[in-house]
Amino acid sequence: MAGENIAVSAQGAQEIKTLADALPESVEIVTEAAQNLGDVFDQNKGVLGPHTSDIENIIETVKTTQAKGQTAVVKVSANLQKVSAKITQIIQKNISAGGGNATP
After folding, report:
1. How many degrees, rounded to 5, is the angle at CA 69 between CA 63 and CA 73?
2. Which of 4, 65, 68, 75 is 20 to 30 A removed from 35 (C-alpha atoms)?
3. Over its length of 104 residues, how does the chain's per-residue pLDDT go in tens digits?
C-alpha cells in the first residue's frame, strides 16, 4: 500500500461522519440496557436464590465495562468527526485549486 495514491471523496467523508454521529446513539442504547438490567435485578434480587451475589457481580462488571466503553466510543466518534472534516477540507482545497484527485 505504501506509495499508492488514494482518492478521497465527499461520499466517503459523509459515510465517516454518519458513523461518527451514530456511535454516541449506540452507546446510549447500551447504557439504557445496562441500567434496565440493573433495575430488573434490583426488583428481583429477593427471589434469585443462592446465586444472587454472583449475578450482582456480573451486573456490576457489565456496568463498569459499559462505562469504559462509553468513554472510548466518545473519543472514537470525535476522531472520526475530525477525519471527516479533514477529508472535506482536502476536497474543497482540491476543487478550489482545480485538482482532479479528489472526487466530490
Report:
1. 145
2. 75
3. 454 555 678 888 999 999 999 999 999 999 999 999 999 999 999 999 999 999 999 999 999 999 899 999 999 999 999 999 999 998 888 888 775 554 55
For residue 103, which phi and psi values (nearest 5 degrees)? -110, 130
**Any residues with CB less than 8 A from the CB of 81 and at least 6 apart, and which?**
17, 20
Backbone angles phi, psi at 58, to 5 degrees: -65, -45
Are the CB atoms for 73 and 23 separated by under 8 Å?
yes
Angle subtended by helix axes 10-44 and 52-97, to nearest 10: 170
Which grid coordinates are listed for 4? 499508492
d(CA 21, CA 63) in angstroms, rounded, equals 23
